[in-house]
Design brief:
Layout: H1 5-39, H2 42-45, H3 47-60, H4 62-72
Helix pairs in contact: 1-3, 1-4
Length: 77
């Protein structure tokens, strides 16, 4: 049980981060990963592609971001 208000809020934020992880982050990462994998070699030879590949990489790392915030109970706002 929650001992004080901050413990309760931390539990709430953890639950919300887990919802975002399951409902948003994993599906997005699963959709972006094949594209990222195919375009990653172009980063070495195509300068303008590097920014797009980096953006895809951030999308693939979205589940990690959500999991770390869920573990810490970080507020979303």
């Amino acid at each position: 049980m929650c001992r004080n208000r901050s413990d309760c809020l931390s539990c709430l934020w953890t639950f919300l981060w887990l919802l975002v992880l399951i409902l948003l982050a994993w599906p997005v990462a699963f959709l972006l990963f094949p594209i990222f994998l195919l375009l990653l070699p172009t980063k070495a030879c195509c300068g303008p592609c590097a920014a797009f590949v980096d953006l895809l990489h951030q999308g693939v790392l979205l589940p990690l971001f959500c999991a770390v915030n869920a573990m810490d109970g970080t507020p979303m706002c």
